[in-house]
Amino acid sequence: MQEDYYSEVNHSIFNNLPQKERLLKLDEIREEIRNSPSILNTILDQIPSPLYIYDFKGNLIDCNNSFEELLGYKKEDLLGKNWLGLKIMPLIQRSRAKIILGKNVQGLSSGPDEYEFITRKGKLVHVEVKTSVLNTDNYKLILASVNDYERHIARENVLKSKHESTEELIGVIYRQIEKNLQIVSSLMNLQKSYMENNKDAELLQDTHNRVKSIRKAYEKLHHSHKLTSINFSEYVKSIISGLLSTYYPEPGNIALNLELDDVLMEMDTAIPLGMIISELVSNSFRHAFMPQVPGEIKVIFQDIPEKYVLKVSDNGKGFPKGSKFDDIQSLGLQLVKSLVNQMDATMHSNVSSGTNILIEVPRK
Question: Which Pfam families does this chain map to (predicted)?
């Protein structure tokens, strides 16, 4: 069946015709369309806006289906009658319509002008009407196009209502996710209090930090006016504030230096980037500094054309001599590498003097 269709297309009326003959053939078809009332009526009825045509005396010559639907009349009730005498608009507006008809007779277009149409059931419909003069071989006619803006407003209100309902539903889902993550976080805290093995407690704390970084994103989203994006700088500050209270509940010697561009970021980028910051900063808190030795952790986030740039560094002791960042097999750093790949980002590291990580994330 498909082959038969393409075979017919390949043997169309234009197949192998020279350019000049092809243009002549197109003109012939266009002329046939213009001279075919049935085709023109079909085109007229396919137009969604109400349209009607009248002569210089105000007699209705034709209208499309949308005009019938707007007023509730059939064509036979309207055509051939003077539309100013049909009482399809209030008396005071009929006087104004006569003035506009006078302009049309002079060859002038008009509108859009506001009117009230009266439907067959007596309902007032607020519309805008724009007119244009049509010149045929034998007649001068006027084409009136109607903008039923009440219907447009009603349609917009329906769409707005659906949008608000969708937003409300998504908000409920986000709040439920946030609550569920809070429950998981609380369970981890409870489990940690029963652990006697410090190593196990430390591993659980790492996982707890990851859950908290995700929960904070949904918490920010809950208070955001956007459905899918959050203020990334505020999100990062909340993550680091949580890490600081976990590892340094009392004021210590570690200085935090945050330089964060203010940007609204989509959740599918914000969450993995937030988790990366959580992993790198918590790693610096735990391993970079000797007890009682002053230190600095710096987080820089830049929003530049076509990409985000993240720099996380500390002036701590760095990695063991001779080791490379890519060779480190800890779960946290493996997670960082995985998230970098997930975002199609690039990562560069320097761990010879302190730890310096540079991550570039392409903008979507």
Answer: HATPase_c (PF02518), HisKA_2 (PF07568), PAS_9 (PF13426)
Orientation angle between helical segments 149-193 and 198-222, nearest 10 degrees: 160
For 223-294, strand residue ranges (E) read 229-231, 254-260, 264-266
- Residue 60 has phi, psi (to 5 degrees) of -70, 125
Rounded Cα–Cα distance for residues 343 and 340 (Å): 5
String of DSSP letters for 16-49: T--HHHHHHHHHHHHHHHHT-HHHHHHHHHH-SS
Looking at residue 143, the DSSP 8-state letter turns out to be: E
Q: Which fold has domain 154-362?
A: Heat Shock Protein 90 (3.30.565)
Peptide bond into 48 cis (omega under 30): no
Count of helices and strands (H, E) across the chain: 11, 12
CB 62 within 8 A of CB 43: no
Q: Could you check whether 36-147 and 154-362 share the same CATH topology?
A: no
Overall CATH class of domain 36-147: alpha beta
Distance in angstroms (rounded) separating the CA atoms of residues 119 and 71: 4
Output the CA angle 274-275-279, nearest 5 degrees: 120
What pTM, to 2 d.p., does this model score? 0.53
Selection from 143, 120, 11 nearest residue 70 by Cα: 120
Query: How many Å separate Cα 261 from the centre of its chain?
Result: 23
pLDDT (tens digit per residue) in 130-176: 988 888 778 888 899 898 877 767 777 777 777 666 667 666 766 77
Amino acid (one-letter) located at 316: G
**Are residues 310 and 336 in contact, defined by beta-carbon separation less than 8 angstroms?**
no
Strands (DSSP E) found in 136-251: 140-147, 229-231
All structural domains of the chain with their residue ranges? 36-147, 154-362
pLDDT in tens, 120-137: 998 888 888 898 888 877
Show Cβ contacts of residue 180 under 8 Å, excluding neighbours closer than 6 positions: none
Residue 304 has pLDDT above 80, yes or no: yes
